[in-house]
Design brief:
The chain is α/β, with parallel strands linked by helices. It folds into two domains: 4-12 and 257-378, Aspartate Aminotransferase, domain 1 (Alpha-Beta Complex), CATH 3.90.1150; 16-252, Type I PLP-dependent aspartate aminotransferase-like (Major domain) (Aspartate Aminotransferase, domain 2, 3-Layer(aba) Sandwich). Helices cover 40% and strands 13% of the residues. The chain has helices at residues 16-22, 24-27, 38-58, 71-85, 101-112, 130-136, 159-166, 229-232, 240-277, 305-314, 334-340, 361-378; strands spanning 4-5, 65-68, 92-96, 116-120, 141-145, 172-176, 195-199, 210-214, 283-285, 295-299, 317-318, 350-354. The strands form three sheets. A seven-stranded mixed β-sheet has the order 2-8-7-6-5-3-4, with helices on both faces. It has a three-stranded antiparallel β-sheet with strand order 9-10-12. Strands 1-11 form a two-stranded parallel sheet. The longest helix has 38 residues, at 240-277. Residues 4-365 form the Aminotransferase class V domain. It catalyses: (sulfur carrier)-H + L-cysteine = (sulfur carrier)-SH + L-alanine. It is an enzyme of class 2 (transferase). Belongs to the class-V pyridoxal-phosphate-dependent aminotransferase family. NifS/IscS subfamily. Its EC number is 2.8.1.7.
Length: 379
Amino acid sequence: MERIYLDHAATSPMDERVLEKMVPHFTGSFGNPSSIHSFGRETRKWVDEARSQIADQIGAAEQEIIFTSGGTEADNLAILGSALARRDLGKHIITTKVEHHAVLHTCEKLEQDGFEVTYLDVGSNGRVSANQVKDALRDDTILVTVMYGNNEVGTVQPIAEIGELLNGHQAYFHTDAVQAFGFLPIDVKNSHIDLLSVSGHKLNGPKGTGFLYANKDVKLSPLLFGGEQERKRRAGTENVPGIVGLKEAVVLSGKEREEKTAMYRTFKEIMIDTLTKAGVKAEVNGDREHSLPHILNLYFPHVSVEALLVNLDMAGIAVSSGSACTAGSVLPSHVLTAMFGEDSDRLTSSIRISFGLGNTAEQVKTAAEQTAAIVKRLT
Protein backbone atom coordinates (compact mmCIF):
# COMPACT_ATOMS: atom_id res chain seq x y z
CA MET A 1 0.00 0.00 0.00
CA GLU A 2 1.35 3.38 -1.02
CA ARG A 3 1.32 5.92 1.79
CA ILE A 4 0.24 9.38 0.66
CA TYR A 5 1.23 12.39 2.76
CA LEU A 6 -1.20 15.30 2.41
CA ASP A 7 -0.44 17.17 5.64
CA HIS A 8 2.34 19.51 4.49
CA ALA A 9 0.83 22.45 6.40
CA ALA A 10 1.75 20.57 9.59
CA THR A 11 5.31 19.93 8.49
CA SER A 12 7.05 19.22 5.22
CA PRO A 13 9.75 16.70 4.25
CA MET A 14 13.22 18.13 3.89
CA ASP A 15 14.35 18.73 0.33
CA GLU A 16 17.43 16.61 -0.43
CA ARG A 17 19.08 19.70 -1.91
CA VAL A 18 18.71 21.42 1.45
CA LEU A 19 20.25 18.52 3.35
CA GLU A 20 23.16 18.43 0.90
CA LYS A 21 24.02 22.05 1.76
CA MET A 22 23.78 21.38 5.50
CA VAL A 23 25.95 18.26 5.82
CA PRO A 24 29.41 19.94 5.60
CA HIS A 25 28.51 22.23 8.51
CA PHE A 26 27.96 19.34 10.91
CA THR A 27 31.58 18.25 10.63
CA GLY A 28 34.04 20.35 8.65
CA SER A 29 32.72 23.86 9.29
CA PHE A 30 31.91 23.65 12.98
CA GLY A 31 33.40 26.82 14.50
CA ASN A 32 31.43 29.24 16.67
CA PRO A 33 30.50 32.25 14.47
CA SER A 34 31.29 34.58 17.39
CA SER A 35 34.91 33.39 17.58
CA ILE A 36 37.52 35.63 15.96
CA HIS A 37 39.85 32.84 14.83
CA SER A 38 39.73 31.24 11.38
CA PHE A 39 37.26 28.53 12.42
CA GLY A 40 34.80 31.13 13.65
CA ARG A 41 35.33 33.42 10.68
CA GLU A 42 34.61 30.54 8.30
CA THR A 43 31.20 29.81 9.82
CA ARG A 44 30.42 33.53 10.21
CA LYS A 45 30.76 33.84 6.45
CA TRP A 46 28.00 31.26 5.92
CA VAL A 47 25.69 32.90 8.45
CA ASP A 48 26.18 36.32 6.85
CA GLU A 49 25.56 34.91 3.38
CA ALA A 50 22.34 33.23 4.54
CA ARG A 51 21.12 36.44 6.17
CA SER A 52 21.79 38.41 2.98
CA GLN A 53 20.07 35.97 0.64
CA ILE A 54 17.02 35.59 2.86
CA ALA A 55 16.70 39.37 3.12
CA ASP A 56 16.77 39.63 -0.68
CA GLN A 57 13.76 37.31 -0.94
CA ILE A 58 11.47 39.75 0.91
CA GLY A 59 12.97 43.10 -0.07
CA ALA A 60 14.63 43.61 3.31
CA ALA A 61 18.07 44.69 4.46
CA GLU A 62 20.52 42.12 5.79
CA GLN A 63 20.55 43.54 9.32
CA GLU A 64 16.76 43.21 9.50
CA ILE A 65 16.83 39.38 9.62
CA ILE A 66 16.91 37.70 13.04
CA PHE A 67 17.44 33.93 13.07
CA THR A 68 15.17 32.02 15.46
CA SER A 69 14.30 28.44 16.35
CA GLY A 70 11.11 28.60 14.29
CA GLY A 71 7.83 30.38 13.75
CA THR A 72 6.69 30.22 17.37
CA GLU A 73 9.78 31.96 18.66
CA ALA A 74 9.58 34.51 15.84
CA ASP A 75 5.95 35.29 16.75
CA ASN A 76 6.79 35.54 20.44
CA LEU A 77 9.75 37.83 19.84
CA ALA A 78 7.73 40.07 17.52
CA ILE A 79 4.74 40.40 19.85
CA LEU A 80 6.25 40.26 23.32
CA GLY A 81 9.45 42.00 22.27
CA SER A 82 7.73 44.98 20.64
CA ALA A 83 5.02 45.30 23.30
CA LEU A 84 7.50 45.33 26.18
CA ALA A 85 9.80 47.76 24.37
CA ARG A 86 7.01 50.28 23.76
CA ARG A 87 4.58 49.90 26.64
CA ASP A 88 5.17 53.56 27.51
CA LEU A 89 3.41 54.48 24.23
CA GLY A 90 0.30 52.43 24.94
CA LYS A 91 -0.92 48.96 25.82
CA HIS A 92 -3.46 48.25 23.09
CA ILE A 93 -2.97 45.43 20.56
CA ILE A 94 -5.17 44.33 17.66
CA THR A 95 -5.28 40.78 16.29
CA THR A 96 -7.83 38.34 14.86
CA LYS A 97 -9.70 35.34 16.22
CA VAL A 98 -8.18 33.01 13.62
CA GLU A 99 -4.49 33.47 14.39
CA HIS A 100 -2.16 30.58 15.12
CA HIS A 101 -1.91 29.82 18.82
CA ALA A 102 1.66 31.11 18.82
CA VAL A 103 0.07 34.52 18.36
CA LEU A 104 -3.15 34.06 20.35
CA HIS A 105 -1.50 32.60 23.44
CA THR A 106 1.16 35.29 23.36
CA CYS A 107 -1.52 37.97 23.25
CA GLU A 108 -3.30 36.26 26.14
CA LYS A 109 -0.08 36.40 28.13
CA LEU A 110 0.15 40.13 27.49
CA GLU A 111 -3.45 40.55 28.67
CA GLN A 112 -2.43 38.92 31.95
CA ASP A 113 0.34 41.52 32.19
CA GLY A 114 -2.01 44.47 31.80
CA PHE A 115 -2.24 44.94 28.04
CA GLU A 116 -5.58 45.24 26.23
CA VAL A 117 -6.16 43.08 23.14
CA THR A 118 -8.91 43.50 20.54
CA TYR A 119 -9.71 40.25 18.74
CA LEU A 120 -11.30 40.94 15.36
CA ASP A 121 -14.13 38.76 14.08
CA VAL A 122 -13.93 37.14 10.65
CA GLY A 123 -16.62 36.38 8.12
CA SER A 124 -17.59 32.87 7.03
CA ASN A 125 -14.72 33.08 4.54
CA GLY A 126 -12.20 33.52 7.37
CA ARG A 127 -11.21 37.03 6.31
CA VAL A 128 -11.00 40.38 8.10
CA SER A 129 -11.09 43.73 6.35
CA ALA A 130 -8.82 46.74 6.57
CA ASN A 131 -11.87 48.72 7.71
CA GLN A 132 -12.22 46.47 10.75
CA VAL A 133 -8.65 47.28 11.70
CA LYS A 134 -9.34 50.97 11.09
CA ASP A 135 -12.39 50.91 13.35
CA ALA A 136 -10.45 49.16 16.13
CA LEU A 137 -7.36 51.38 15.84
CA ARG A 138 -6.72 53.78 18.72
CA ASP A 139 -4.11 56.38 19.55
CA ASP A 140 -2.63 53.99 22.12
CA THR A 141 -2.49 50.99 19.76
CA ILE A 142 1.12 49.82 19.61
CA LEU A 143 0.80 46.60 17.59
CA VAL A 144 -1.43 45.05 14.95
CA THR A 145 -0.75 41.35 14.27
CA VAL A 146 -2.65 39.67 11.43
CA MET A 147 -1.54 36.39 9.85
CA TYR A 148 -0.71 36.41 6.13
CA GLY A 149 -2.43 33.12 5.28
CA ASN A 150 -4.40 30.85 7.61
CA ASN A 151 -2.87 27.50 8.50
CA GLU A 152 -6.20 25.66 8.72
CA VAL A 153 -8.39 26.98 5.90
CA GLY A 154 -5.81 28.79 3.76
CA THR A 155 -7.58 32.17 3.67
CA VAL A 156 -5.22 35.01 2.74
CA GLN A 157 -5.71 38.28 4.61
CA PRO A 158 -5.57 41.78 3.00
CA ILE A 159 -2.05 42.41 4.26
CA ALA A 160 -1.08 45.18 1.84
CA GLU A 161 -4.29 47.09 2.59
CA ILE A 162 -3.77 46.82 6.34
CA GLY A 163 -0.15 47.86 5.98
CA GLU A 164 -1.14 50.92 3.98
CA LEU A 165 -3.76 51.82 6.59
CA LEU A 166 -1.19 51.65 9.37
CA ASN A 167 1.45 53.62 7.48
CA GLY A 168 2.06 56.73 9.58
CA HIS A 169 0.47 55.31 12.76
CA GLN A 170 2.67 54.44 15.72
CA ALA A 171 1.45 50.82 15.73
CA TYR A 172 3.87 48.23 14.40
CA PHE A 173 2.42 45.79 11.86
CA HIS A 174 3.33 42.14 12.41
CA THR A 175 2.26 39.24 10.21
CA ASP A 176 2.70 35.54 10.84
CA ALA A 177 3.72 34.39 7.35
CA VAL A 178 4.61 30.82 8.33
CA GLN A 179 2.10 29.26 5.91
CA ALA A 180 2.21 31.95 3.22
CA PHE A 181 5.97 32.30 2.80
CA GLY A 182 7.19 30.39 -0.23
CA PHE A 183 3.71 30.28 -1.76
CA LEU A 184 2.98 33.99 -2.19
CA PRO A 185 5.29 36.82 -3.31
CA ILE A 186 6.11 38.96 -0.26
CA ASP A 187 7.71 42.40 -0.21
CA VAL A 188 7.85 43.81 3.30
CA LYS A 189 8.53 47.37 2.20
CA ASN A 190 5.75 47.58 -0.37
CA SER A 191 3.27 46.12 2.13
CA HIS A 192 4.49 48.33 5.01
CA ILE A 193 5.20 45.27 7.17
CA ASP A 194 7.31 45.97 10.26
CA LEU A 195 7.64 42.40 11.57
CA LEU A 196 7.26 39.09 9.72
CA SER A 197 7.62 35.51 11.03
CA VAL A 198 8.78 32.49 8.99
CA SER A 199 9.47 28.83 9.84
CA GLY A 200 11.91 26.56 8.02
CA HIS A 201 10.10 23.23 8.32
CA LYS A 202 7.09 24.48 6.34
CA LEU A 203 9.42 25.19 3.38
CA ASN A 204 11.06 21.75 3.08
CA GLY A 205 13.81 23.06 5.32
CA PRO A 206 15.05 21.81 8.71
CA LYS A 207 12.91 21.79 11.82
CA GLY A 208 14.01 24.11 14.60
CA THR A 209 14.84 26.96 12.22
CA GLY A 210 13.13 30.19 11.28
CA PHE A 211 13.56 33.92 11.13
CA LEU A 212 11.94 37.16 12.13
CA TYR A 213 12.13 40.15 9.84
CA ALA A 214 12.23 43.30 11.95
CA ASN A 215 12.36 46.69 10.27
CA LYS A 216 15.53 48.56 11.26
CA ASP A 217 13.45 51.16 13.11
CA VAL A 218 11.56 48.59 15.20
CA LYS A 219 12.36 48.46 18.91
CA LEU A 220 12.44 44.99 20.47
CA SER A 221 13.09 43.81 24.00
CA PRO A 222 14.96 40.49 23.81
CA LEU A 223 13.37 37.37 25.27
CA LEU A 224 16.64 35.46 25.62
CA PHE A 225 19.64 36.74 27.53
CA GLY A 226 23.24 35.71 27.24
CA GLY A 227 25.56 36.61 24.39
CA GLU A 228 25.25 39.45 21.92
CA GLN A 229 24.26 37.40 18.88
CA GLU A 230 21.75 38.75 16.34
CA ARG A 231 22.65 42.33 17.26
CA LYS A 232 21.69 41.68 20.90
CA ARG A 233 18.14 40.73 19.90
CA ARG A 234 18.41 36.93 20.22
CA ALA A 235 21.14 35.46 22.43
CA GLY A 236 22.55 31.99 21.80
CA THR A 237 25.16 30.38 19.56
CA GLU A 238 23.88 30.31 16.00
CA ASN A 239 22.63 27.02 14.57
CA VAL A 240 24.90 27.20 11.53
CA PRO A 241 23.80 23.97 9.76
CA GLY A 242 20.17 24.92 10.35
CA ILE A 243 20.68 28.47 9.11
CA VAL A 244 22.40 27.21 5.96
CA GLY A 245 19.54 24.79 5.38
CA LEU A 246 16.95 27.47 6.02
CA LYS A 247 18.64 29.75 3.50
CA GLU A 248 18.67 27.04 0.85
CA ALA A 249 14.99 26.26 1.45
CA VAL A 250 14.09 29.96 1.21
CA VAL A 251 16.05 30.44 -2.02
CA LEU A 252 14.58 27.31 -3.62
CA SER A 253 11.05 28.31 -2.62
CA GLY A 254 11.57 31.64 -4.34
CA LYS A 255 12.88 30.08 -7.55
CA GLU A 256 10.17 27.43 -7.75
CA ARG A 257 7.20 29.29 -6.28
CA GLU A 258 5.22 29.91 -9.46
CA GLU A 259 5.62 26.34 -10.70
CA LYS A 260 4.65 24.88 -7.33
CA THR A 261 1.65 27.11 -6.75
CA ALA A 262 0.25 26.34 -10.20
CA MET A 263 0.64 22.61 -9.53
CA TYR A 264 -1.01 22.78 -6.11
CA ARG A 265 -3.95 24.73 -7.48
CA THR A 266 -4.38 21.95 -10.03
CA PHE A 267 -4.29 19.43 -7.20
CA LYS A 268 -7.16 21.27 -5.52
CA GLU A 269 -9.20 21.02 -8.70
CA ILE A 270 -8.45 17.31 -9.02
CA MET A 271 -9.51 16.68 -5.43
CA ILE A 272 -12.78 18.61 -5.74
CA ASP A 273 -13.64 17.30 -9.21
CA THR A 274 -13.01 13.68 -8.20
CA LEU A 275 -15.22 13.99 -5.12
CA THR A 276 -17.96 15.68 -7.17
CA LYS A 277 -17.90 12.99 -9.87
CA ALA A 278 -18.13 10.35 -7.16
CA GLY A 279 -21.32 11.95 -5.91
CA VAL A 280 -19.85 13.04 -2.58
CA LYS A 281 -21.01 16.32 -1.12
CA ALA A 282 -18.06 18.41 0.03
CA GLU A 283 -17.93 22.13 0.68
CA VAL A 284 -14.81 24.28 0.85
CA ASN A 285 -14.15 26.10 4.11
CA GLY A 286 -12.43 29.40 3.45
CA ASP A 287 -12.16 32.00 0.72
CA ARG A 288 -11.65 30.34 -2.67
CA GLU A 289 -10.65 33.66 -4.26
CA HIS A 290 -8.13 34.66 -1.60
CA SER A 291 -6.53 31.35 -0.69
CA LEU A 292 -3.14 29.73 -0.25
CA PRO A 293 -2.53 27.32 -3.13
CA HIS A 294 -1.56 24.32 -1.02
CA ILE A 295 -4.30 24.24 1.63
CA LEU A 296 -7.78 22.81 1.07
CA ASN A 297 -10.21 22.54 4.00
CA LEU A 298 -13.29 20.45 3.20
CA TYR A 299 -16.58 19.99 5.03
CA PHE A 300 -18.37 16.64 4.65
CA PRO A 301 -21.88 17.02 6.09
CA HIS A 302 -22.82 14.50 8.79
CA VAL A 303 -19.45 12.73 8.67
CA SER A 304 -17.48 12.33 11.91
CA VAL A 305 -14.06 13.85 11.43
CA GLU A 306 -12.50 11.36 13.85
CA ALA A 307 -13.88 8.38 11.94
CA LEU A 308 -12.83 9.91 8.62
CA LEU A 309 -9.27 10.58 9.79
CA VAL A 310 -8.86 7.07 11.21
CA ASN A 311 -10.18 5.42 8.06
CA LEU A 312 -8.00 7.58 5.82
CA ASP A 313 -4.96 6.72 7.93
CA MET A 314 -5.77 3.02 7.64
CA ALA A 315 -5.86 3.56 3.88
CA GLY A 316 -2.40 5.13 4.04
CA ILE A 317 -3.56 8.71 3.56
CA ALA A 318 -2.37 11.38 5.98
CA VAL A 319 -4.52 14.51 6.38
CA SER A 320 -5.58 16.41 9.50
CA SER A 321 -8.48 18.14 11.19
CA GLY A 322 -6.58 21.41 11.58
CA SER A 323 -3.43 22.75 13.15
CA ALA A 324 -0.88 20.11 14.15
CA CYS A 325 -0.10 22.23 17.20
CA THR A 326 -3.48 21.24 18.65
CA ALA A 327 -3.23 17.54 17.76
CA GLY A 328 -4.83 15.40 20.44
CA SER A 329 -7.03 18.23 21.65
CA VAL A 330 -10.74 17.49 22.09
CA LEU A 331 -11.58 21.14 21.52
CA PRO A 332 -13.03 22.15 18.14
CA SER A 333 -11.02 24.29 15.75
CA HIS A 334 -10.96 27.90 16.95
CA VAL A 335 -10.67 28.95 13.30
CA LEU A 336 -13.85 27.17 12.19
CA THR A 337 -15.58 28.36 15.37
CA ALA A 338 -14.74 31.96 14.51
CA MET A 339 -15.97 31.46 10.95
CA PHE A 340 -19.19 29.52 11.55
CA GLY A 341 -20.06 29.66 15.24
CA GLU A 342 -19.66 27.11 18.00
CA ASP A 343 -22.82 25.18 17.06
CA SER A 344 -21.87 24.57 13.44
CA ASP A 345 -21.65 20.99 12.18
CA ARG A 346 -18.55 22.04 10.25
CA LEU A 347 -16.51 21.95 13.45
CA THR A 348 -16.84 18.18 13.70
CA SER A 349 -17.03 17.27 10.01
CA SER A 350 -14.13 19.07 8.33
CA ILE A 351 -10.62 18.00 7.35
CA ARG A 352 -7.56 19.86 6.11
CA ILE A 353 -5.70 18.59 3.06
CA SER A 354 -2.38 20.25 2.25
CA PHE A 355 -0.07 19.54 -0.67
CA GLY A 356 3.69 19.72 -0.98
CA LEU A 357 6.98 18.20 -2.05
CA GLY A 358 6.65 14.69 -3.48
CA ASN A 359 2.92 14.80 -4.21
CA THR A 360 1.72 13.93 -7.70
CA ALA A 361 -1.56 14.34 -9.54
CA GLU A 362 -1.97 10.56 -9.43
CA GLN A 363 -1.60 10.53 -5.66
CA VAL A 364 -4.14 13.29 -5.24
CA LYS A 365 -6.65 11.48 -7.45
CA THR A 366 -6.12 8.26 -5.51
CA ALA A 367 -6.57 10.08 -2.21
CA ALA A 368 -9.75 11.71 -3.49
CA GLU A 369 -11.17 8.36 -4.63
CA GLN A 370 -10.34 6.77 -1.29
CA THR A 371 -11.89 9.72 0.55
CA ALA A 372 -15.06 9.42 -1.52
CA ALA A 373 -15.37 5.71 -0.77
CA ILE A 374 -14.82 6.25 2.96
CA VAL A 375 -17.32 9.12 3.16
CA LYS A 376 -19.96 7.02 1.43
CA ARG A 377 -19.30 4.19 3.87
CA LEU A 378 -19.62 6.51 6.87
CA THR A 379 -22.89 8.12 5.78
